[in-house]
Write a structure and sequence with these properties.
Layout (H helix, E strand, L loop, with lengths): L1 H6 L44 H21 L16 H8 L31 H8 L3 E2 L2 H4 L9 E3 L2 H15 L4 E5 L3 E5 L7 E7 L5 E8 L15 H7 L1 H6 L5 H12 L5 H16 L2 H6 L1 H11 L4 E10 L6 E11 L1 H10 L3 E8 L7 E8 L5 E9 L4 H14 L9 E4 L3 H10 L4 E4 L1 H10 L5 H11 L4 H14 L1 H8 L23 H9 L8 H24 L7 H14 L12 H16 L36 H12 L13 H5 L13 H8 L11 H29 L1
C-alpha cells in the first residue's frame, strides 16, 4: 500500500466478506504498476504446505523488485480518474458491469439534492445542544441575496410563511410561470405549476427542529408553457425593488420608471401600479404627511431653542368634525424665518423686497408665501416664509404684518415692494406698508393687457418701451406712439399709475430699477422639489438649501477680485462703454427756452416759500462743476497689504472669535447710511386726479413726481405747524 500510494491518488481498502471479487474480472480492479495480480488464498492443504515457503520467497523477491524500481525513478506520474479522459472510466463501467445482476447489496438510489438525514423523525426528541447542531443541516434562505432570483430545494428553511410566499412570487416573475397555491395558510403551503405538470413544492411549519418554515418536498422540473404573470408584479414589489432608485432621484417620472421595470422584469405593469409604487416609495422616504403636521409644534420649539432669533409660530382654526361632536383644531397659517437670513438682509441688502406666493403640491394643498430680497450682487436673498390656505387680502395682510414686525421696520417710506398685480396683495401693501413704493411686474401687466384683447407683437413692444422710459419726455413719446398704434390700448394703459411700472417715475432711493419680479419666480423654482414633499420635510429641505447656498456664496465672494461685485462691475463696464458716445453741451445753449422756464418756476417756488432755502435744487448746469472723487490707495494704510496697520488688522481678525449678535434686530444698514435722503411719506393719489398735473392741468391726469410730492408734503407740513401754533395760542388765551 505504501508503494501504491506513491503513484495512485486514491486508495480504497475493500474487505471482501461476500466473495465479491471471486466473480469479478481482473481488468476491473485498479492496482499499481508492476504489482502482482491478486491471488485468491484459501486454507492450505497438506500437499501445498511444502510449497508455501517457495511462494513466500517469490513474493519477497517481487516486493524487492518493486522497491528497486521505485528507488531508481525520481518522478512519479499521478492520475486522476475524474479528470483524465484517456482512462475512460465511464466506458469501462458500462462495458464491464452487468446492471441486471443484483447481489442484494445495492442501496436504493435517491435524489442527490435531497438530504434524508435532515428530515428524520428520530431527531424529534433531542437535547438542546443536539437540536442546535441539527439546525446546521438545513439550508437557510437569505432574503437579502436570494430574494432577487430565488431557487428552492428540499430542506430549505425560511424565517416565516410570508418570506416563502414572497419568494414564490418572485420566482414566478423571474421564470415567467404561473404558480398556483393549493394550500396556503400559516401552517403549510402547497404550490403547483399547473395540473398535470411535475413542478411541485410543499412546505410546512417546523418549530420544534428549526423554528421556521421548511420545504418538505420539491420537484423543480418545468414542462409547462411560459406565461407573463403581470398581475404578480404588485406595487409593493416595485416599491421594495426600486427604493434605491427613488432615493437617488425623487423626480423620477413614470415613463422612466416604466423603462426601468421593463429592463428588470422584461414586462411592464399598468400605469396606476407604477404611480402607486412611486407614491409609496416617496412616503417611506419622507414620512407620513399627517404625522408630520402633528410634529409642527415640537419642530418650532426646537428651532427657536437651537437657533436663537429665529421665528416660528402657527395659528389654528376650530373646525366642526361631522364624525364627532367635538371641535378639532386645524392648521390655518404658519410663519417662520431664520435669524441669520434676517441679519444678513438688514446688514448688506437694499430696502427692496419681492413678494410672491406659490402652491404646495401635496395632498392638503396650501399656498407658500415668500419674501425675497436682493443681495449686493443682484442675486436672490430669501428672508421669510409663510403658509396660508389661499391667496386673499387677509392672508397677505397677516404675512406682511409679521414680516414688518420681524424685520423691526418702523418707517416704511424707505422700502420698496415688488409684486404681481393681485387684488388682495395691493390692498394689503397699502395697509401694512402705507409709505412704501409699490411696483408691479411688467410681465404680468402685459399678460393682463393681452387678456383684455390687446394682442400683437407691436403693442407688446410699445408697452416695454413705455416701461423702460428713463425720463418723462421719453415716456411721453412712447405713450404717443402707442396711441397711434391703438387708441383702445392707450386708454387701457392710461388707467395704470406710471410710478408703479415706469422707470421714469421710480424712486431712486433703493438704487434699483427692476421691472420684473424675477427674484421671487427664481426662488419658487429653486424650491420646486421641496414643494412636492410633506410639510415638515419641505421645511428641512428649504433650510438645508439655504444653508448650502449661503456657504457657497461666501466661498465665491472670497475669490472675487476687488471690492465691487461681479454683476455690478459688469453693469459699470457697460455704462462706461456707452459713455464714450456722449458729449457735453452747456445748459444755456441746449434747450435755452425750456431751461429759462424751469429756472423761473424754481424762483417762483422760492418766493412762495414752497421750497426751503436749505433744500437742494436740481439745476443741470451744476453738473459741470462736479469733480469726481478718486481714492488714493497710498493714503489709506488699511488697504495697503505691506503696511503695518493692514497686517495688524488681519491678525486681529484671525484671533478674535466671531460673536453672534443677539437681541433686537438692527436697522437696515442701507437705510441708516442714507437717512438724510429718505423720501417723505408719499401721498397716494388716483391716476385720474394726478396725471393731468404734468400736462399743464389738462387730460385725465397722472401721478405726481417725487419732487412735486416733496413740495406738496412740505406745504402740508407747514400748514400743520401753523394749525398747531394757533391751537396753542387759543389755549393760552383761555388760561
Amino acid at each position: 500500500m505504501i508503494n501504491a500510494s506513491k503513484s495512485e491518488k486514491t486508495l480504497v481498502l475493500f474487505v471482501d466478506h461476500t466473495n465479491f471479487l471471486k466473480g469479478l474480472r481482473e481488468d476491473v480492479i485498479v492496482r499499481p504498476r508492476n504489482a502482482p495480480s491478486p491471488v485468491e488464498r484459501s486454507a492450505p492443504s497438506a500437499a501445498e504446505a511444502s510449497t508455501s515457503s517457495t511462494v513466500l520467497v517469490a513474493e519477497k523477491e517481487t516486493m524487492q523488485n518493486i522497491q528497486s524500481d521505485d528507488s531508481d525513478s525520481d518522478d512519479f506520474e499521478f492520475y486522476d480518474s475524474d479528470f483524465d479522459a484517456e482512462d475512460g472510466d465511464d466506458d469501462i463501467f458500462a462495458d464491464n458491469v452487468d446492471k441486471s445482476v443484483n447481489d442484494n447489496n445495492d442501496k436504493e438510489l435517491c435524489d442527490e439534492h435531497e438530504d434524508e438525514d435532515a428530515l428524520e423523525d428520530d431527531d424529534l426528541n433531542l437535547r438542546e445542544e443536539d437540536r442546535k447542531h441539527l439546525k446546521k443541516k438545513f439550508t437557510a434562505f437569505n432574503p437579502e441575496i436570494d430574494m432577487d432570483n430565488p431557487s428552492f430545494k428540499r430542506g430549505m428553511k425560511f424565517s416565516g410563511v410570508d418570506e416563502l410566499r414572497k419568494a414564490l412570487t418572485t420566482y414566478s416573475i423571474r421564470n415567467r410561470v404561473k404558480i398556483k397555491k393549493l394550500k396556503n395558510d400559516k401552517r403549510r403551503i402547497q404550490a403547483v405549476c399547473a395540473p398535470g405538470y411535475p413542478w411541485m413544492l410543499k412546505a410546512s411549519n417546523d418549530k420544534r427542529r428549526t423554528g421556521g418554515f421548511v420545504i418538505t418536498a420539491y420537484e423543480g422540473t418545468h414542462k409547462c408553457e411560459g406565461s407573463f404573470p403581470v398581475k404578480s408584479i404588485t406595487s409593493k414589489i416595485l416599491t421594495e425593488k426600486f427604493m434605491h432608485e427613488f432615493r437617488d432621484n425623487q423626480k423620477l417620472d413614470l415613463k422612466s420608471f416604466a423603462a426601468k421595470v421593463l429592463r428588470e422584469y422584461k414586462m411592464c405593469p399598468e400605469r396606476w401600479k407604477l404611480s402607486r409604487a412611486r407614491k409609496d416609495a416617496l412616503l417611506q422616504i419622507h414620512g407620513d404627511e399627517e404625522g408630520q403636521f402633528r410634529l409642527l409644534m415640537d419642530y418650532g420649539q426646537e428651532l427657536r431653542r437651537s437657533n436663537l432669533g429665529s421665528k416660528f409660530f402657527l395659528t389654528t382654526n376650530s373646525v366642526n368634525d361631522p364624525q364627532s361632536p367635538d371641535y378639532k383644531e386645524h392648521l390655518a397659517t404658519v410663519y417662520w424665518s431664520y435669524d441669520a437670513c434676517k441679519r444678513g438682509f438688514l446688514a448688506g441688502c437694499r430696502p427692496f423686497i419681492c413678494i410672491d406666493g406659490c402652491h404646495i403640491k401635496t395632498k392638503y394643498k396650501g399656498v407658500l408665501l415668500t419674501a425675497v430680497g436682493i443681495d449686493p450682487n443682484d442675486c436672490i436673498y430669501p428672508v421669510a416664509f409663510g403658509l396660508a390656505e389661499v391667496k386673499c387680502t387677509s392672508s397677505w395682510e397677516w404675512f406682511l404684518t409679521n414680516l414688518r414686525d420681524d424685520l423691526n421696520i418702523s418707517n416704511t417710506s424707505p422700502w420698496t415692494i415688488m409684486s404681481d398685480k393681485q387684488k388682495g396683495l395691493i390692498n394689503a401693501v397699502q395697509k401694512v406698508f402705507p409709505d412704501a413704493e409699490h411696483r408691479f411686474c411688467v410681465r404680468h401687466i402685459i399678460q393682463n393687457f393681452q387678456r383684455a384683447g390687446h394682442r400683437g407683437e407691436t403693442l407688446k413692444n410699445d408697452i416695454w418701451a413705455i416701461a423702460r422710459s428713463t425720463s418723462v419726455p421719453k415716456w411721453h413719446r412712447s405713450m404717443e406712439k402707442l396711441k397711434v398704434d391703438s387708441e383702445t390700448a392707450y386708454a387701457w394703459i392710461e388707467e395704470l399709475a406710471p410710478n408703479t411700472w415706469v422707470k421714469a417715475f421710480f424712486s431712486d432711493f433703493p438704487k434699483c430699477d427692476m421691472l420684473l419680479n424675477n427674484h421671487s419666480e427664481v426662488f419658487n423654482s429653486y424650491i420646486l422639489e421641496a414643494r412636492e414633499m410633506p410639510f415638515l420635510s419641505m421645511l428641512e429641505t428649504i433650510f438645508y438649501k439655504l444653508l448650502q447656498r449661503n456657504e457657497t456664496k461666501e466661498r465665491e465672494a472670497k475669490k472675487w477680485p476687488g471690492r465691487i461685485c461681479p454683476k455690478i462691475k459688469k453693469k459699470l463696464d457697460k455704462f462706461i462703454e456707452w459713455s464714450n458716445e456722449c458729449s457735453v453741451s452747456p445748459a444755456a445753449d441746449h434747450n435755452k427756452k425750456g431751461h429759462e422756464k424751469y429756472l423761473e418756476s424754481i424762483a417762483e417756488q422760492i418766493q412762495n416759500n414752497i421750497v426751503g432755502e436749505d433744500d437742494e435744487i436740481d439745476i443741470p448746469s451744476i453738473v459741470e462743476h462736479v469733480i469726481p472723487h478718486t481714492p488714493n490707495p497710498s493714503m489709506d494704510p488699511t488697504q495697503k497689504q505691506d503696511s503695518m496697520v493692514y497686517r495688524m488688522q488681519v491678525e486681529d481678525g484671525e484671533h478674535v472669535p466671531i460673536n453672534r449678535l443677539l437681541g433686537p434686530l438692527p436697522e437696515n444698514t442701507f437705510v441708516a447710511s442714507a437717512r438724510d435722503n429718505i423720501p417723505h411719506s408719499r401721498v397716494r393719489v388716483t391716476t385720474a386726479s394726478s396725471r393731468g398735473n404734468l400736462r399743464g392741468g389738462r387730460g385725465r391726469g397722472r401721478t405726481i413726481s417725487p419732487r412735486e410730492q416733496a413740495t406738496s408734503n412740505a406745504a402740508a407740513h407747514q400748514e400743520e405747524e401753523e394749525r398747531l401754533a394757533e391751537e396753542e395760542e387759543l389755549m393760552s388765551s383761555q388760561i
